[in-house]
């Protein structure tokens, strides 16, 4: 089946098998490997991207279901000149990552969480990110990073 979508502002069109997952389209067809494949069962959140502004786990969406969608991946957050998005900067400054495997999905889920709320506190961030797993950090610095970025983006505690 022919599928077309916009990923990080770039148009992609390709013939795909109807069963091809969006995560594989992003990584293999668009060449954007920042989106990770973790569990393939929607348990870990490593593959989280934004589809039409909403957080989704791209291992649970078929590429054909993303027809005409606007997809944003971790590669689409920084400015063209390399200036980091406030979330990326906060993860760096607050040491919200260790191995980094979960980080792209965690950042994208956090972006959706921030955009969907007018105020956030530690508990709201913990609840909002419970579908994204990290095996390294214990979440303390991830929560700190999300709250720092939220504050910078105008969402108060």
Short description:
By secondary structure, the protein is of the alpha+beta class. Helices cover 31% and strands 15% of the residues.
Please explain how this structure is put together.
This protein has 157 residues and is an alpha+beta fold. A 5-stranded mixed sheet has the order 2-1-5-3-4, sandwiched between helices. It folds into 2 domains: 2-75, Ubiquitin-like (UB roll); 86-152, DNA polymerase, domain 1, CATH 1.10.150.120. The longest helix has 13 residues, at 103-115. The chain is built from 5 helices and 5 strands; from the N terminus they run ββαβββαααα. A hairpin with a 2-residue loop joins strand 3 and strand 4.
Write the layout of secondary structure elements.
Elements: E1 2-7, E2 10-15, H1 22-29, E3 48-51, E4 54-57, E5 70-72, H2 86-93, H3 103-115, H4 122-128, H5 140-152
Parallel strand pairs: 1-5
Antiparallel strand pairs: 1-2, 3-4, 3-5
Helix pairs in contact: 2-5, 3-5
């Amino acid at each position: 089946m022919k599928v077309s979508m916009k990923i990080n502002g770039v148009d992609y069109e390709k013939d795909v098998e109807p069963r091809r997952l969006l995560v594989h389209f992003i990584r293999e067809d668009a060449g954007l490997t920042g989106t990770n494949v973790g569990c393939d069962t929607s348990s870990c959140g490593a593959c989280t991207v934004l589809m039409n502004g909403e957080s989704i786990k791209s291992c649970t969406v078929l590429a054909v279901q993303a027809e005409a969608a606007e997809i944003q991946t971790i590669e689409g957050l920084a400015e063209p000149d390399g200036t980091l998005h406030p979330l990326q900067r906060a993860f760096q400054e607050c040491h919200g990552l260790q191995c980094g495997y979960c980080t792209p999905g965690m950042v994208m889920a956090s972006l959706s969480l921030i955009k969907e709320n007018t105020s956030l506190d530690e508990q709201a961030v913990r609840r909002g990110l419970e579908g994204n797993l990290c095996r390294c950090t214990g979440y303390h610095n991830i929560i700190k990073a999300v709250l720092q970025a939220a504050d910078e983006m105008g969402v108060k505690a």
